[in-house]
Design a protein that fits this description.
Layout lengths: L24 H15 L2 H18 L7 E8 L2 E10 L2 E11 L5 E9 L7 E6 L7 E5 L4 E2 L14 E2 L4 E5 L2 E7 L4 E4 L18 E7 L12 E12 L4 H12 L28 E3 L3 E8 L6 E7 L5 E6 L3 E9 L5 E5 L1 E2 L2 E6 L4 E10 L3
Antiparallel strand pairs: 1-2, 2-3, 3-4, 4-13, 5-12, 6-7, 6-9, 8-11, 9-10, 10-13, 11-12, 14-17, 15-16, 16-22, 17-21, 18-19, 18-22, 20-21
Length: 367
Amino acid sequence: MWRDLLLYAEHTYTSSSGYSRPESEQSVRQIETKHFHVSDARETAHWIAQESMSRLLDSIRIEPPATAVNAVATPWGQSLKYRVSGLDAPRIDVEIRLFNGEKKIEIVNRLQKEPVNDKEAIYFAFPFAAPQPEFEYEGQNGTVNPARDELAGGCREWYAAGHWARVSGGGISAAVIPIDAPLVTFGDINRGLWPEKFEPKSPAIFSYALNNYWHTNFPRAQSGEFTFRYVVTSGAELDTAHLSRLGRESLTPLETGELTRNDKVGLRGSLPATPASFLGLSGDGVELETLKPAEDGQGYIVRLLETAGHEGRARLSSRLLEFSRAWLSNATEDNLREIPASKDGVEVALSPYAIVTLRLLARPVTP
């Protein structure tokens, strides 16, 4: 696909004598090499990319447009299935799921890919209609706007979205949750130009599903059966707390398990007949990231994440457990400070995008 595209390898090396010494001989040679391969070759790479894209667009044929269309009603909405083909992809099975009670669309692409040794990449495009687009995505524990938050010299052609990527403009917002392929590009595909500024060419979000551009640690040819799932939603506004919750529901959906007498797990008693949750969490924009037994066997470890970017408070409660004591802890489960706890629950304050770890001592509620 990008047979002639010049790409600069991200891997850089230096000896111990050149480490953190910008004036050393090794560092000077490395900087000169980078200028040659990146800065001086940028214009050449631009024209190579344009010519390669023209050849690509001329070669793509999707015949027939769609076959085996099947639309069925389901308990939750409707499912539409069809099959297409593409360049080096003889079969692409697509399922579109429409939901009656939720503002979202699920798209499942099952791809049969033939091996190709030339440089290539595969994208799934989401061409939204948002004038003067502004892009954001979820980082490790915060929201990133590449137009204003990225440091100088950073990569501006692809990004790793945690749970969602969003485009806004003209009073509308749309978001993509890439379940199986976290790399995304904004406004255009990756052309290997290494731009110094983030200047998107369109409001489209591209899922950067596959590529063999990198020269080390990756197979040269990518082939076989692949599944790429996406959730799409839109609205006048899409706040980060809503997208973070939807993203977690999509990437880590609810799992169920049933215990029977034959499991012989040593359990005694029964759960209450009335509905009850094991652990309840209240607080806008707060997600429960971890619930686990403590490593030292003393109580439970709970880890909370603030996703809305605001000061907030969270409250933990349970109809099955009574909390006797609680501590603020760190990531290695060391107690830092005891906080108030009662049989009704535990309350804790969170700063914007904060990660808070708690240790809870609890006992079953006495009937």
